[in-house]
Amino acid sequence: MNIPLKYNLRSLMVRKVTTTMTILGIALVVSTFVALMAMAQGLSRTLVSTGLAENVVVLCKGAVADAASSLTFAQFLALRDQPQIRSDEQNQVLASPEAVFQILRKKKAGGESNIILRGVRPVAFQVHSEVRISSGSSLAVRSGQLLVGKGVAARYAGLEVGSKLRLFSREWTIVGVLECGGGYFESEIWCDLDDLLSDSRRSYYSVVFAKLRSPDLVNEFRQKVDADPRINLEARREIDYFEEQSESARELRIIGLSVAFLMAIGAVFAAMNTMYAAISSRTKEIGTLRALGFSRSSVTISFVIESMLLALPGGVLGCILATPVHGMTTGTMNMRAFADVTFAFTISWPIIFGAMAFSALIGLFGGFLPARMGASIPIVQALREV
Amino acid sequence: MKFVPLVFRNVMRNRRRAWLTILSLAVPFFLLMTLQTALESMDIWRRRADDNLRVVAFHKMGLVFDLPESHSRKVARIPGVVHVCSFTWYGGVYRSFKDGLVSSMAVDPDTFRKVWPDGSVPEDRYEEFRKDRAGVAIDQRIATKYGWKIGDKVTLKGTVRPVDLEFNVRAIIRDSVDPNGFYIHRAYLEEALGRPGIISDVWMTVDRRENVPKVVRTVEEMFANSPFEVKVDLEKNFINSMMSMWGNIQGLVGTIGAIVVAIIMLVAANSISMSVRERTSEVAVMKAIGFSSTFVLALILAESAFLGLAAGLIGCSIGYALFSIPQVTTIFGIWAALFSAPGKAAFTWLWIAPLIGMAAGFVPAFSASRLKVVDALRQVA
Which residues of chain A does B245 touch, with a Cβ-Cβ cutoff of 8 Å? Predict the structure, then answer.
């Protein structure tokens, strides 16, 4: 027979202060867990959500990021002839050569960081079809114009539409803002490719992004690009490429999990403390329950449930406390590209479920030992207790 | 002082609670000390940079833009500049990018130790590094991490420069400025790249502090309006700027730290109020036989302080033991620098532990001291 839940609820209400403090403590632990996970999730979502299934990235062999790659005009011309690449109605081949630099700019919040400056041709907007210009106008060819990503525009000083930037010995003008659903390109500044090549006196591209006729052609294309001696480059699925860039998110997640794990150990001890106190002050009640015929196991279960009743509301409260971080934007260094990536804290459902499981575990571990001790006191001794 | 045994006995009367409280506090204290170690490490970099006269010139557009080699010869002629060492960023990777990004810099071996005398390396070893074009001088911490010894051959894959190179470990520097430090010959890299005559940045030392602003201005003006304009920074500002690239680490650490302190307070307050509640009648008896309210307050605050101090000591000691082992800190990869502060940094905030305990114990202690003797004595257990 089970001890009614009401018994546990009422017992918790009797010890209001202790109950509240324990719940608050667990809530703080859970909210830290949620916030740290939301940070890692936000960073990884930004990078992983970038990229289209039918797109490929072509880099020089072994390059860890487009910013660290270089390829010649001849390689690009040979690459563009590959039949797997899609063409549009005007017979334009959807292969976008791009040059990438990292420029050091001042952050509004203080300090500086590198932003990717990407030189593109108009075809880039057809290849990166998720990218659109949310305000202002598009890039005119060889005009010294810039488009800034929504993310960097918000976080860096002097990147508003209409402002001027001094890059390589001339003034450039920001004419519009880029958007791509929170993806990586929002952390970049785009300009005309030939502008960038001539101003930087560089005579090679960094990377080619291409849209294939179908996502199934990726392997065929990859083998061709690798084997053709005129090309001799490495092609990757765009999705895989950005997935690889999300490495720093994994480090953040490890740090977040270690912090949360440590805090959870502390919370388990604290919950145990509360439960031991609860049980030792109710020894007589336990004796009565046992005398009434409730078995040892139902007493144990009842106290574990009581511990859960401390932990689960703590979990819910923790999730609620952490919600304000959702959507907050910040940035960190993507080590591969040696450039800043802007991301928004994202609380996803798996994080919420994780947080609830996390608090349930705190309740379980915190409640089990005290509950077993309480249940094991002999009835006679328990009843005699003053 | 004669009441110390009383405080101790009160804390230990419920041993299980005492230990659970201490352990549940020790864990967050350990976390707090870890965060402190991270902040301290960042601070050590800055402080070290505070009292030296090192200045760096790099391309105005950013660190990835190369400068011509001639820049280093030109700045060397500026009055006030003592030693000059140019760096070329190689960006080598050992085995895989994931855990093998080595902060490999190609330097001028003749002037490197003059500009960067930090840490210690045996003279003869350094001489061997200087003589071997394919030689490399590494920090002892990175040597431990990968198990590299003098005489080993190490092959790195270039990311910033597209050449893979093999190096001979010739010298190991103890406590250089970078736990990931891997210093190679610039001439060797130049040759492998086909002599492009480029450098990433120029480091120089200035003779006197008052000459620093003048040198900074002169160098910046010297290359103004050229295709290779430079920005000149004191090492301190340069390091601050590099650290800010990682994001708002201080903000993150500060927020977690504040939450941790709040958790410590809650746990301690909870435990102390439980303990006080259980001896209501005892407190009443003490007051009835003439102990003052202030005494009761002080007694319970002393217990709280004791719990806090015990937890702090355990938490800090674990931190000290862990971060003194180089193998532990290198697990953090590129974040290892955050744990490079000497282990004693873990104890910096130990004094705060009893204070947190007392702050947490104040409410229960205060309500116990205000207890009405009559009510309390009437209360049954």
Answer: 111-114, 333, 340
Phi, psi of B234 (to 5 degrees): -65, 150
CA pair distance A296, A274, nearest whole angstrom: 21
Q: Which residues of B touch A314 (CB under 8 A)?
A: none
B69 min Cα distance to partner chain A (Å): 17
Residue B275: band (very low, low, confident or very high) from pLDDT cuts 50, 70, 90: confident
Residues of chain A positioned with their CB less than 8 A from the CB of B56: none
CA distances from A232 to A83, A202, A213, A224, A226 (A): 17, 21, 21, 9, 5
Q: Is residue B269 within 8 angstroms of chain A, CB to CB?
A: yes
C-alpha triplet A330, A335, A336: angle, nearest 5°: 125
pLDDT digits (tens, 9 = 90+) for A179-206: 998 899 999 999 999 999 999 888 899 9
Q: Where residue A35 falls among pLDDT bands split at 50, 70, 90? A: very high
Q: Check B64 against A114: CB less than 8 A apart.
A: yes
Instruction: Give residue for tokens 């409260």.
Output: A317
Taking the C-alpha atoms of residue A64 and residue B91, their distance in angstroms, rounded to an integer, is 11
In chain A, at which residue ranges do the beta strands (DSSP E only) sit?
55-59, 95-106, 112-120, 132-136, 145-149, 164-167, 170-179, 188-192, 207-211, 234-237, 329-334, 339-344
B17·A169 Cβ contact <8 A: no
**CA of A272 vs chain B CAs: smallest distance (Å):** 7
User: How far is the first Cα of chain A from the last one, in angstroms, to the nearest whole number?
Assistant: 27
- B373 or A287, greater pLDDT: A287
Q: Tell me the pLDDT band of B144, cut-offs 50, 70 and 90.
A: confident
Helix, strand, or coil here: B101? strand
Q: Please name the member of B62, B91, B381 whose beta carbon is closest to the beta carbon of A104.
A: B62
User: Quick check: B229 contacting A, CB < 8 Å?
Assistant: yes
**Burial class of A14 by CB neighbour count within 10 A (0 to 12, 13 to 18, 19+):** exposed
B97, B244, B263 ranked by CB distance to A29: nearest: B263
The SS3 call for residue A331 is strand
Spatial contact of A66 and A279, defined as CB atoms under 8 Å apart: no
Q: Which residue of A has its CA nearest to B380?
A: A386
Q: Is A177 helix (H, G, I), strand (E, B) or coil?
A: strand
Of the pLDDT bands very low, low, confident and very high (cuts 50, 70, 90), residue B327 is low
CA nearest neighbour of A209 among A133, A88, A124, A149: A124
A319: nearest Cα among A283, A340, A280, A350: A350
Q: Which chain B residue lies closest to A246 (C-alpha atoms)?
A: B98
